[in-house]
Structures are given as C-alpha cells and as structure tokens.
Amino acid sequence: MRSTGKSRIAYLAAVLAATSLLLSGCSAGGYGSNSFPNTTTYLYKKFTNGQFIAPYKKNQPDMGATLEAMIALSAVGYGKDKQTKAIEWIKKNPDLLMSNGFKGEFVFASHALGFSNDPSVKSALTKLESAIEPDYSIHNSTNYETCWVILGLVAEGKTDLANNIALRLTELAELDGGYKYLTGDSQYEESADVTSFMIIAVGATSGFGSSQDEAAKTFAIGRAKNWLLNNLHGSDRWVAMGGDDMAGTAYAISALNSLGVEVTPYFNWYTKQIHQKDFGVIAPWSDPDSDLLTTTQSILALNKLSFLDILKHMNN
Question: CA–CA separation, 107 vs 208, rounded Å?
C-alpha cells in the first residue's frame, strides 16, 4: 500500500536519516569539499556572463546543463553568493523549462541555492504537479526526467508524491534490472546513467513509505546496482554506443558510492580523463579537447558526492 500524509517535520527527519544511511559508506571529503579545484574553476568560468552554459553552440544556453552545473557547483563551495547572475537568469527564463525533468531540476536547484520562495519556483511546481498521472507516471517524460521530478518533489517536501512516483519508477525496470530512457524501447540498450540516477532518486525517498513500499524500493535499487556491476567494461568504466560512457560512469560512481560500494577503480579511471592543460574532462567525441557537458556531469563524481548529499544539506 502506498503511504499518505507526512508533515514537514517528519519529512526533514526522514530525509536526514535516510541520506545519512545511504552515505555511510562514502569515502569523500564531504559536502563542500572541492577535490579537483581546477576542474571546478574550468566549469565555473564557462558560464557566459556568469549566467548560463552553452555546451553545444556558443551563446546558445542549455537549461538542463546550466541547472546541473549550478547544482553541482553548489556542493563544492560555489553557493548562492557566487551564482547570483545564474540564479537571476534561470528565474527570468521559465520558458526554457520545456520538460517536466527541467521543472523538477529547477525546483531542486532552487532549494540547493536558496531561492525556493521565488514565484517562478511555485509556478514551475504547479505545472509539474499537473503532469502527474493518476498512476503516478509523468506525462510525456523519460525515466531520466522522472528522476528529476522525484528529486524536485523531495526537496519541496512533497513526500507522498515523491514516494508514489518512485514506486512507479521501480516498476519500469527492464527484465535484468537496468533502465532505459524509455522502458521497453527496442532501439536502445539499458543505460548506466539512467540506471544510476534511478538509484539516487528512489534512494532519496527512503523512509517515506510503508514497509511494503520500502521493500519494493530496496529490491529495485539492489537490482539496479547489480546491473551496473554486471555491465562494467573491463573493470573500471561503462560504455554506450561503442564508446566510453562518461555520463554513465560519473553517475555510477555517485550512485554506487552512495550505497557504500567500493568505487576506486572507476574513480581512478575517470580522473585520468581530466585534460592536463585546461582541466576539463575529455569525452570520446571531444578528444583531445575537453567537453563542457561531460565536465558538468563529472563534478559530483570527482568529489565522490551525489545529489543525495545536496539534499541532505538543503535544510541544515
């Protein structure tokens, strides 16, 4: 049975307890650490006029990448005071929140960076909630986007919705426990980034449901973890479409580390992909140059952090 009715106080207690448990096996320096400051600086300086990042074409902002960069930077010492221009920019461009995933990410970012009371956040949240179907699927959204919806709702304290959507997501795994962007899509294989993100997002709802709910979520997370460990390329990374999967490996480091799994081999491989001159992260498609989107996705993994760490510190 899916649970109902939790207070804001119960939410805070549960999220702190859950994330503390999930993070007990981590070997990172902790939230706010900045183990690779040159890589962090590379990303921070890539914001156009301090407002947004444009990973694909100069002066063409990408809202999803900008939000992820802002969220990641917030965990390594670049708080609200250092991201003022970016915060103002995203608040003034709600038309770029074109997917439910972006809306969830925006809500999460607003809590991470301290502007959750802004009217733009409330508007995005209202639109996001209207996209939730009676069966707790998210209208016109991928599994990856659903993870952002869950994290946004948890950050907002909407634990019942987050729990029920997480339970729905546990039902969307492939037969072997991995996840595709769209369940059952015959054109693509399971993806390490989506599978890892599922672990983090569903993990963020730990403690919000009934004992039956918690058992279902724990089982699904365990299957996803096993999928990751069973689909390594060699012993130190994941691949996608015939090449090294940089996003998948970064997300896997964060997800597995949050579960207390030893990630040293993957972490060591990833650090070797840092450019020796500009300190961005090199991707197969950008080699020998750094890739801005890949660097954005690397910051938390390089510090052995995840979105769970950010969630834990939102209300401290």
Answer: 19
Instruction: Indicate whether 17 pLDDT > 60.
Output: no
- Return the CATH number at 258: 1.50.10.20
Q: What is the mean pLDDT of the chain?
A: 92
Beta strands per DSSP E along the chain: 239-240, 243-244
Q: Is residue 18 part of a domain?
A: yes
Per-residue pLDDT tens digits for 262-315: 999 999 999 999 999 999 999 999 999 999 999 999 999 999 999 999 999 986
Which domain range does residue 25 map to?
8-313
Query: What's the confidence (pLDDT) of residue 83?
Result: 98
In a 13 Å sphere around the CA of 314, the CA atoms on its Cβ side amount to: 29
With 0-12 / 13-18 / 19 or more C-beta atoms within 10 angstroms meaning exposed / middle / buried, residue 14 is middle
Residue 159 lies in a domain: yes
pLDDT at 4 over 90: no
| Burial 255-294, CB ≥16 within 10 A → b, else e | bbbbbeeebeebbebbeebbbeeebbbbbbebeeebbbbb
Number of structural domains found in the chain: 1
Two structure tokens written together for 314: 């939102």
Signed CA dihedral, 74, 78, 84, 88: sign only: negative
- Helical H segments across 143-207, by residue range: 143-156, 159-170, 192-203
Phi, psi of 237 (to 5 degrees): -165, 175
Average pLDDT value for residue range 186-203: 97
Give yes or no for residue 207 having a pLDDT over 90: yes
Query: 157 near 151, Cβ under 8 Å?
Result: no
The rounded distance, in Å, linking the Cα atoms of 27 and 161 is: 32
The reply to whether 1 falls in a domain is no
| Structural tokens at position 138 | 């998210």
